[in-house]
Amino acid sequence: MHAGVHVPKLNCRLQAFPSPQRFFITKKHKQQKSTEVVTMMGKRTDGNKPKDRRGHQELVTGTFQAPCTKSGQWPVISRPLLAISIEPSLRVRRAITANDPLLVKRILKSHPRLLHNPDPSPEALSNSNLHLAASLGHLPIAKVLVDHGHEHPDPALNEHHQTALMLAAAAGHTDVVHFLCERTPHVILRRDIRWRDAIMEASRGGHDTVLQILLTYVPEGARAAVQRADLDGNTALHFASSNGNLLVLRTLLAAGADAERRNVWSWTAMSYSATVQAEVYLKGLVTEVERRKMVRQEVEQLKNSVKGAASIKGGAVRVVEEDVEVED
Question: What angle, rounded to 10 degrees, do the helices at 174-183 and 139-147 form?
């Protein structure tokens, strides 16, 4: 905004605080202490002097706080707003949060070094761009980042050694999990600092569909994947039982999870049941699984016995034929 723009008229002064993004109009008023906030928008120019609209480059927003006046007159600010520059690293994170893949592409084209862009804030754990997109469930952003080589040759890890797939599985974002499993299936069994993988995170969150996708794409097979344990000896079945996720319990047992597996404190998954209903349900599932296992073993034994009898019978017939040939 250039000189001559009208705002509430008041004998006031422009005071700049340490933060370059805020400017306040301050003045003491004797009769009325209430204030109003006025938001003003302007354009950044190439120089300090005001220029016409052809020289305007960037939209600038300034927030001004001025005391209310009885007359309702508007003061005049005789100086342009200062330009507010936003770091590209912050702009790309804002674009990811807004789920704007086109803007992310433009920023990465101008700043290719920001492909990973770890977040330096204390609560962000150095999450990369893909971590942020996966945790929010923004599939278009995830596709853009993976296509640009975000996970090549190795997946990006935060301070807890978590992958983007772990965050997506923990949040239950089915589309993002499916996409990452298709593009990077080797990341499914990656462990964090607590030795937990994406399957454990999905079981812990109670996301049955996500769990089924992970078990479908896991390289070593579902049976081996559900047997893995973290540093405390807890398996995916322990996490599912502690949260009372009934559908997840059925999926894990169908995949071959061991209900009698104990952690370092000698507790089974059934001991961690969140509710009585979950405990009864888990006991019923375990009984059903054991019954099916016994039936399967009986069928296998019957097949083996039939094959053995057939082989013995065939061998006896061959012996008789050989005797006949000797008599001739």
Answer: 20
Tens of pLDDT, residue by residue over 187-239, are 999 999 999 999 999 999 999 999 999 999 999 899 999 999 999 999 999 99
What secondary structure does DSSP assign to 209-231, as a single string?
A: HHHHHHHHH-TT-HHHHTT-B-T
CB 12 within 8 A of CB 5: no
Query: Taking the domains of the chain in order of start, what are their residue ranges?
Result: 1-85, 87-183, 188-291
CATH node for 87-183:
1.25.40.20
Under 8 Å between Cβ of 163 and 189 = no
What is the CATH architecture assignment of 188-291? Alpha Horseshoe (1.25)
User: Using one digit for the tens of pLDDT, what is the confidence trace for 234-251?
Assistant: 999 999 999 888 999 999
Q: What tokens were used for 303?
A: 């097949």
Give yes or no on whether 87-183 and 188-291 have one common fold. Answer: yes
